[in-house]
Amino acid sequence: MAESSPFKHASPDDSPGFLLWKITALWQMKLSELLGTFGITQTQYAILASLRWFEEQGEPTTQAHIADHARIERMTLSKSIRKLETDGLVFREKSAADSRAINVTFTPAGKALIQKAVVAIEKADDEFFACLNEQDLDQYKSLMLALICHA
Fold first, then answer.
1. ∠ at Cα 126 (124, 130), nearest 5°?
2. In DSSP terms, which residues pair with 62 in a beta bridge?
3. Could you say which of 1.10.10.10, 2.60.40.200, 1.20.1250.20, 3.50.30.10 is the CATH number of the domain covering 40-150?
4. Cα–Cα distance between 62 and 109 in angstroms, integer?
5. Which residues lie closer than 8 Å to 120 by C-beta, 6 or more apart?
6. Backbone angles phi, psi at 41, to 5 degrees
7. HSE on the CB side for 35, CA within 13 Å?
8. What is the 3 state secondary structure string of the chain?
9. CA 38/CA 21 separation, integer angstroms
10. Distance from C-alpha of 101 to C-alpha of 117, rounded to nearest angstrom
11. What sign does the CA torsion over 23, 24, 27, 30 have?
12. Burial 98-115 (b: 16+ CB within 10 A, else e)
């Protein structure tokens, strides 16, 4: 490498950030294509899947809880939920327990859509990570969680 080069690494693939960029681009391309068949974006999927998970686990279905769980900026979340509401997939209502909170609830169409979308995404997840054995996949998940917790 030239002395004047700003690059720290001998190869681009030595950069953990660049590898994250590449894997994210591949995953997002796969998800975008798949979710397009359901007429939703990746952000909308994250919202709907989080909502479905919360319903199953008996957790609050507030916008704030969804934002925290999916790590979606609150303004982006609000706009996405508004679009999901316009599309007839969810509705919002003030929480009876906390007047500041807004609960998000599925419509029957939204619940049917997310049921199919989760199955499709989990299949894509299995296919995408199929090249990793169980131990590698466990290590990958552990490393990703460490990075998320640190951020």
1. 120
2. 103
3. 1.10.10.10
4. 20
5. 34, 37, 38
6. -90, 175
7. 20
8. CCCCCCCCCCCHHHCHHHHHHHHHHHHHHHHHHHHHCCCCCHHHHHHHHHHHHHHHHCCCCEHHHHHHHHCCCHHHHHHHHHHHHHCCCEEEEECCCCCCCEEEEECHHHHHHHHHHHHHHHHHHHHHCCCCCHHHHHHHHHHHHHHHHHC
9. 25
10. 27
11. negative
12. eeeebbbebeeebbebbe
Model pTM score: 0.88
Give domain limits for the chain. Answer: 40-150
Pair of tokens at residue 100: 């500041």
Q: Output the pLDDT for position 3.
A: 75
pLDDT digits (tens, 9 = 90+) for 25-35: 999 999 999 99
Decide: 78 and 66 in contact? Cβ < 8 Å: no
pLDDT (tens digit per residue) in 39-79? 999 999 999 999 999 999 999 999 999 999 999 999 999 99
Residue recorded with tokens 């199929």: 130
Q: Which phi and psi (to 5°) does residue 92 adopt?
A: -115, 150
Question: 68 forms bridges with which residues in the sheet?
Answer: none
Q: What are phi and psi of 141, to 5 degrees?
A: -65, -40
